User: Fold this.
Amino acid sequence: MAARGEIPYLHACESNAVAIRLYESIGFCLRNTLKMAVVQRTE
Assistant:
């Protein structure tokens, strides 16, 4: 990807510390944060 000029990125919930540590251990770093909302349909 880097050879093609592409930048990979991942999304992880802030509460998912295990995933964040894993991503950081393989070279990813925090670039930005965003707010997310989960909407569920009620039946």
